[in-house]
Design a protein that fits this description.
alpha/beta; Rossmann fold; OB fold (Dihydrolipoamide Acetyltransferase, E2P); 2 domains; 27% helix
Length: 268
């Protein structure tokens, strides 16, 4: 069996003692193996380093002088190829915002080695999933027999992609919804959006839906609280109704036109 190379870790924290302690935890982690390839004392230093280098995961503090860790995470989110993000901070109140930025994990200081190891194991699992060839890359056409694999209560489930109605981000996990059940899985909506292509549509920062499952689009008062994008007015937001389960999901204003186009194509 080939030994996997160690995870490449960037530590971003304005406190030198915090960086030193975190480096020690990373380098004594037994599995997966990991090495600290660089340190940065600010978001600006980290951004400069990342513009010329690559790493697998960024261990990121929230509160720092200048742009904070959340601002750096928002910048990295827009990159096609970005490292995984694990926040390491003394401020637990930012957890919800961190997961909205698709952080893989959120650790509070003082960090325990076992807790950090669990986060790094998730990073290694995510990297392995990326390297696994999809059906299309293996030479087969993407079709109804393509599947999403996930682990649930110790079982490995293979869910046909044709049965998936939507994926929704729920803090640190994703919910995969079919007509029959809801399943919890690891992953990020950005990766799924790239992998699944034209069959799915990003309707909101927290939701990716199957185009074929969208039944109608309308102004919907219930969508107002869920639509955190694009303005703070009190008008009702937009929402789509999902087939089979008759659930309504919020649509961000910027995606309304794309949803209308998808509905129009279904009617052709």
């Amino acid at each position: 069996m080939l030994m996997q190379p160690p995870l490449k870790v960037l530590i971003v924290d304005d406190e030198s003692l915090a960086r030193l302690r975190l480096r020690g935890l990373v380098e004594t982690c037994p599995e997966p193996r990991a090495e600290v390839v660089a340190e940065a004392a600010s978001a600006g230093q980290a951004q400069q380093w990342l513009s010329a280098h690559a790493c697998d995961v960024v261990l990121l503090d929230v509160q720092m002088p200048g742009p904070d860790g959340l601002a750096l995470a928002a910048q990295l989110r827009a990159r096609a190829q970005r490292p995984e993000l694990v926040f390491v901070t003394a401020h637990p109140q930012h957890a919800v915002q961190a997961f909205e930025l698709e952080a893989l994990d959120y650790l509070t200081k003082p960090v325990r080695r076992e807790r950090l190891q669990a986060s790094l194991q998730r990073v290694a699992q995510r990297l392995a999933e990326r390297q696994r060839p999809t059906q299309a890359e293996a030479g087969g056409a993407e079709g109804d027999d393509s599947v999403i694999s996930l682990t649930e209560r110790g079982r490995v489930l293979r869910i046909p992609l044709a049965e998936v109605l939507y994926f929704k981000a729920e803090l640190k996990y994703l919910t995969l919804r079919t007509a029959a059940a809801a399943h919890v899985m690891d992953g990020s909506l950005s990766e799924l959006e790239q992998r699944l292509g034209e069959r799915f549509l990003r309707i909101h920062r927290n939701a990716l839906v199957a185009k074929a499952a969208v039944r109608e689009l309308e102004r919907h008062a219930a969508a107002e609280a869920g639509d955190g994008e694009g303005g703070g007015d009190s008008e009702p937001g937009w929402a789509v109704r999902i087939a089979h389960v008759n659930e309504w999901l919020a649509v961000s204003r910027r995606q309304v036109a794309a949803v209308r186009e998808a509905l129009a194509r279904q009617s052709l």
